[in-house]
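User: Hi! I'm working on a homework problem where we have to compare a predicted structure to a textbook description. Could you give me the structure for the chain below?
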Amino acid sequence: LARGQAGLHQALQQLAAQPRQLVALAFLRGLSHEEIASQTALPLGTVKSQIRRALITLRQLLGEPGARATA
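Assistant: Happy to help. Predicted structure tokens:
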């Protein structure tokens, strides 16, 4: 488990600052996309798309089977 957490931490560090912050707000603090948009003053669509792209990137970095390439 510790090895998996280390891999996740390393993958998160490879994300750009803003997507990393949005993922942290969503998954570590448990905020909804709407709450994140309100707190960060970003449009809701931007929050949703950046989180989605960040999750795709994390899956690729962690070597998950079936991870889609980003466009």
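For your comparison, note the following. Helices lie at 2-13, 17-28, 33-40, 44-61. The chain has four helices and no strands. Good luck with the assignment!
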